[in-house]
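Hey, can you fold this one?
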Amino acid sequence: MKKIIGLILVGCFLGAHANDELIKRLEERFPSAQVESMIETNLLGLYEVVINGSVYYVDDGFTHLFDGSLIELSSMRNLTSERNAQIEEAALKAVAIPFDQLPLDHAIKRVFGNGKRRFAYFADPNCGYCRKFDKEALGSVTDATLYIFLYPVITEKSIPISKSIWCSEDPGQAWDDYVLSGVMPTAPSTCSNPIDDNLAFGKKMMVRATPTLFFESGSRVSGALTVEQLEEQLNVTR
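Sure. Predicted structure:
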């Protein structure tokens, strides 16, 4: 908290007017950064600047760039966290996609019961939360069709494992064997596979964590859902 207060006090001495020149200076100083927006905060003379999807603060004299949380002490609200959440929500809405437009042919298909309810699952074979989700939720799901998108983002080691799983005679069984039992797939990883396409698609869709699930209702959820939470999502209609 002392660090946060100290940073806020520094802001009391900053300037009051941002302009195109300031954006230009930001881009010159940080050439790999994408400055997406700049707005006046009306707080401490700071301006909010969104760079590569994250919130920072800067003064119009370009003497300080504040990378941290701005706290409203009267309510203890984390204003930066709230803005980041708003930006994230808007970004996800911007890349929303109807379920039928997912590249379902790039996923391992699994049918439970009558398969009536559909959902997709972006998963890394070395993801502990994916393992938890598989064990505790998928084992009890009924009347649903699941599409598992192999999405190796946790470690480089996940890439050849994902390719080998896809290249297996029964990819679904190979996935279960590895995730649930730790049995390494033995199929060569050189067959034609969609792993690189999945990684590119996931990046485009801002899939930043595994597991991430997409439902026919249009909803999207990250994290290891319980079977009750999964059933609730599957039962939501558009």
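The radius of gyration is 22 Å. Let me know if you want another pass with a different chain boundary.
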